[in-house]
DNA sequence: CCCGCTATTCAGTGTTGCTATGTACCGGTG
DNA sequence: CACCGGTACATAGCAACACTGAATAGCGGG
């Protein structure tokens, strides 16, 4: 999509990745591919990796190195307890925003 | 709200302001007050003014200086044709994002 | 042997919202 | 009159985040 999407992704992309990880552990390449598949056509590789590093440093995920028979080893991330909590907070913030935007779209005051 | 909101606002705040202006012309101080009233408790004054300057420079709004009997003159902004178009695009991008997030929240794959 | 796919990393850039501060106009109070 | 609070706008500096582009590296096939 356009540049509007780029700016709108700030903050939400992190939540999206955490939500994905809350369903099952995953690694960067896999997540990027899945997002592209879902229509986030222009999400750059580097973006996801940088994001994963950030959430790891914040202690929201646990990491495990797993060998792959198709290339270099994968860094598999899984959401830990603190990450779950953070994700909950994310959904609260998202709901707040989405609610107000939906109200605005309908022309309500 | 927390810092999550700060990042999530990036990109959406612009759309929010444009949506407000699509209902009726308004000036910065008024918009800030309204947003605070709607629960965006920590939106800074300066943020809105900077945003208004940006969208003016991009030609999305028209400006008119209107004297006030309670203080300095107001800069009243109104959405023009180009702004309307940009707002439409914003809603499309927003729908795209909201749809996918809602799907993720429901744990759907 | 090189190419393509898998997989990760990183330096540099632009946009955005926040912080903090400054300017300025007005009316009311002491 | 001096001061203060509410109204109204502007701006310089900062932090966070996603994108660009490139580099590194392992693996298998032509």
Automatic annotation (TrEMBL), chains A, B:
InterPro entries: Metal_resp_DNA-bind_regulator, Tscrpt_reg_PadR_N, WH-like_DNA-bd_sf, WH_DNA-bd_sf. SUPFAM superfamilies: Winged helix' DNA-binding domain. Residues 17-89 form the Transcription regulator PadR N-terminal domain. It comes from the Bacteria. This is PadR family transcriptional regulator.
């Amino acid at each position: 999509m356009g540049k509007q999407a780029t700016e709108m992704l700030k903050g939400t992309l992190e939540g999206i990745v955490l939500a994905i990880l809350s369903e099952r552990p995953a690694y960067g390449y896999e997540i990027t591919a899945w997002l592209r598949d879902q229509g986030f056509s222009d999400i750059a590789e580097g973006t996801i990796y940088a994001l994963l590093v950030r959430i790891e440093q914040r202690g929201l995920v646990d990491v495990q190195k797993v060998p792959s028979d198709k290339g270099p080893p994968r860094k598999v991330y899984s959401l830990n307890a603190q990450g779950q909590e953070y994700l909950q907070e994310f959904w609260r913030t998202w709901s707040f925003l989405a609610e107000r935007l939906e109200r605005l779209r309908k022309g309500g005051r």
